[in-house]
Amino acid sequence: MRHRATTAIAMTAKKQRLVGAHDIPSPRRGFRWRPRSVIPHLVLLPICFVWIYPFLWMVSAGLKTEREIYSGLSLIPETLRWENFQRAWVVARIGEYFVNTVIITVGSIAIVLFSVALMGYVLGRFQFPGKKLVIAIFAATIFLPEGYTIIPIVELLQRLHLTNSLAGVTLAQSGGAHVVMVLLFAGYFAQLPKDLEEAAVVDGASFFRVFWEVMLPLAKPVVATTVILQFMSSWNAFLQPLVLTLSRPDLRTLAVGMYAFRGEYSTDWSGMAAASAISLAPVIITFLFLQRYFIEGIAGSVKQ
Length: 304
Hints:
By secondary structure, this protein is mostly helical.
């Protein structure tokens, strides 16, 4: 049986290669100008430039002096002031805040990924009394403002003796219903064939082993989507890290650390722009690496 399955997979792959070979244009053919394909690009390029202009201006502002920042909206500085980034990293302690943010973000991603995947697996694969009610309660939490939950979160961390610690901030960032992520996993798991579970159960696999070794590896697109969503949420979080690190400035995250550039009578805008560019770089790099899986995860979860 295994030999026949391997042979079938090999024949299918061979057919795909043959079909794909006919789709590849011959290198002898010259480039043909097609108005239908060029005109949309000419229209979209200015729109894309306007869309990313604020980010480009922020990066250029990090390389300017205060006088240049106030002089106009030009993207090209007179002289590249790399010392702004050095000042932001060392003097404003952005380097320490960067490490804190990485620890909190990685820890929250691990906790959230495991919890939402398990909840999505149960909601997507099993029928039980009150399932619709559970989903309705999950959906209702979307309308609950974050500020309303900060007091019970602080009280809970105090009872757990996790206040004024990175573990406490990580746990706070991992809390919440994470409705979108749970529903993405539930929708994706619901579409997988039941034969996979039945075969694993026949082989003696337990509930958790079926989830961990069979179902979760098949949900890589949704895993990548969850990683991106939680990464952006934890990396850019402001309210909870601000409240939970008031008495421990050394535990601040990047979003909270931006306050270091604001003085009583003036603001270091060039240093703040440099720190903002440092803060946004990991988010952009992560999304560029996982964008294909992000799109596949969204599309696979909503496919009928």
